[in-house]
Each structure stands twice: as structure tokens, then as C-alpha cells.
């Protein structure tokens, strides 16, 4: 029921061989995803008491800068509670590119229980995702 947020295979940072120079979880002057602290053995039970940040689909999670000067804002894309951010990518940004679906994850989000079924029903299969990418590629050519 948890969602692990990663870079999509088609993201420019993974496709164009860019070098990531920094990752910033500071979203605004008053909002840092690093300030989201959930602790204890039973993180799930404590989410609401410890104030895990609530995210909407359009909530920015972090900003990633590359050596060519481009900056990419990564959004949650899902409503739920922010369980954790991956602080390891701050000191080793290359993990985002080298191991994007494992150690290079960006964040973990826990959707509302009543919304989790509709979320999973709306997901694409790997084949459907590849078809979407192929259509994008063909339309931009």
C-alpha cells in the first residue's frame, strides 16, 4: 500500500546522460521535506501524531539540478502522507541514475487507505507505459 517515488525511465536525467549536481528537498522558505520526521517502530501508527507532511498530487518533493544548468522539480503525483525521503541521494546523487528503482528512490508516500485501490487500478502496466513512451517519441519526431 505504500508508494515509492522514483524517476521514470523516460526522465531526461536518465535518458540524456546528464550529470546530477544537487538535490534539494527545500521546497520553499517554510517547507523542507527533510523536516518530515516519522520515528518509532510503528511509523504507520504514529504518522498523524508526529505530523508527517500531507502531499497532494501536485506537491513538489524535491528539485534536481544537472551540470548543464537545468533544474527539474519532482512532484509527488499521488495524495498521501510522506513517510520518508531518501537522504542518501543528497550525498550520492548518482544513485538516482545508477539505481533509480532501488537505492536511488526519492521518497516513500502512504496514500489514504480509501484511495489506495483507485490508485492501483489507475496504474499502467510496463507494456502500457512503453506504448505511451513510443507514442510520445513518434509524435515528437
TrEMBL record:
InterPro entries tied to this protein: Abitram, GCV_H/Fam206, Single_hybrid_motif
A cellular component term, taken from the record's GO annotations: filopodium tip
Pfam families: GCV_H
Transmembrane segments: none
Main location (coarse class): other
UniProt keyword Nucleus present: yes
Gene3D superfamilies (alphabetical): 2.40.50.100
GO biological process: dendrite morphogenesis; regulation of actin filament polymerization; regulation of filopodium assembly
Localization: Cell projection, Dendrite; Cell projection, Growth cone; Cell projection, Lamellipodium; Nucleus speckle
GO molecular function: actin filament binding; actin monomer binding
Keyword annotations from UniProtKB, A to Z: Cell projection, Nucleus
Family: Belongs to the ABITRAM family.
Protein name: Protein Abitram
Gene this chain is encoded by: Fam206a
Amino acid at each position: 500500500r505504500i508508494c515509492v517515488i522514483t524517476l521514470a525511465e523516460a526522465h531526461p536525467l536518465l535518458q540524456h546522460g546528464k550529470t546530477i549536481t544537487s538535490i534539494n528537498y527545500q521546497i520553499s522558505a517554510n517547507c523542507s521535506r527533510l523536516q518530515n520526521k516519522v520515528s518509532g517502530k510503528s511509523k504507520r501508527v504514529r504518522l498523524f501524531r508526529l505530523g508527517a507532511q500531507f502531499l497532494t498530487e501536485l506537491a513538489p518533493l524535491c528539485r534536481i539540478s544537472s551540470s548543464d544548468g537545468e533544474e527539474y522539480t519532482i512532484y509527488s503525483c499521488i495524495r498521501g502522507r510522506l513517510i520518508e525521503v531518501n537522504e542518501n541521494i543528497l550525498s550520492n546523487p548518482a544513485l538516482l541514475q545508477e539505481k533509480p528503482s532501488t537505492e536511488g528512490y526519492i521518497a516513500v508516500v502512504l496514500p489514504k487507505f480509501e484511495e489506495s485501490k483507485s490508485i492501483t487500478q489507475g496504474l499502467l502496466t510496463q507494456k502500457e507505459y512503453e506504448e505511451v513512451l513510443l507514442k510520445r517519441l513518434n509524435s515528437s519526431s
